[in-house]
Amino acid sequence: MDNRKRTVVVTGFGPFGGHTVNASWVAVQELQKLGLGGEVDLHVYEVPVEYHTVQTLVPTLWKQYHPLLVIHVGVSESASTVTLEKCGRNHGYRVRDNSGLCPDAHCCIAGGPDCIHSVIDMESVCKRVSASGLGVTVSVSKDAGRYLCDFTYYTSLYLSHGRSAFVHVPPLGKPYNGEALGLALRAIVQNILELLDEREEIHCKQHLMSH
């Protein structure tokens, strides 16, 4: 492992619909306060709930920071747990955004695969965070909901060849406050980084053995 700082970008969404305060952005701001330790260079962004903004912002984040990992956080009205999304989907975007628009052809990337899975093993992350005794319930899902969350996730997965994650949080107070969500996010990011390190070590060993 070298001594260079690893860059991690975490995004939350701005207000939309009845969510005048978006729990995802509150959680990301709490994560920023907590930090990820001296070895991680953390950048956070609030993403407007607009498809066209996502189409320009997400590629910019990857180009500007060359991050090891980008984690997008969104709020889900129906969630009662902190939910790790396994994949993003390309088609079915018919719900209009804050600008009253939805994508042409209702898809993210014309000609892209229908579904892209994250390279991160979300089941392992879920088990590790659940075992850490945070008092926040974590679960895994494979349907991010075909709105801006899913759209953002698919776009990021497509650009990064799967090196992205998406976390859905419940609305504030249902049942967790912002601080609890921030702690859960920190545990999730730290466990993802550990998993990526382990994968890298295994890959290095295999590479050395093959020579």
Automatic annotation (TrEMBL):
Question: Which keywords has UniProt assigned to this entry?
Answer: Cytoplasm, Hydrolase, Protease, Thiol protease
Q: Which residues cross the membrane?
A: none
Q: What does this protein do?
A: Removes 5-oxoproline from various penultimate amino acid residues except L-proline.
Q: Give the annotated active site.
A: C149
Q: Which organism is it from?
A: Neogobius melanostomus (round goby)
Task: Tell me which PROSITE patterns the record gives.
Answer: PYRASE_CYS
One GO molecular function term of this record is:
pyroglutamyl-peptidase activity
Record localization: Cytoplasm
User: What are its GO cellular component terms?
Assistant: cytosol
Q: What is this protein called?
A: Pyroglutamyl-peptidase I
* Main location (coarse class): cytoplasm
Specify the superkingdom: Eukaryota
The record, for CDD domains, names: Peptidase_C15
The catalytic activity of this protein is classed by the Enzyme Commission as 3.4.19.3
Q: InterPro entries per the record?
A: Peptidase_C15, Peptidase_C15-like, Peptidase_C15-like_sf, PGPEP1_Cys_AS
Which reaction is catalysed here? Release of an N-terminal pyroglutamyl group from a polypeptide, the second amino acid generally not being Pro
The UniProt entry's coiled-coil ranges are none
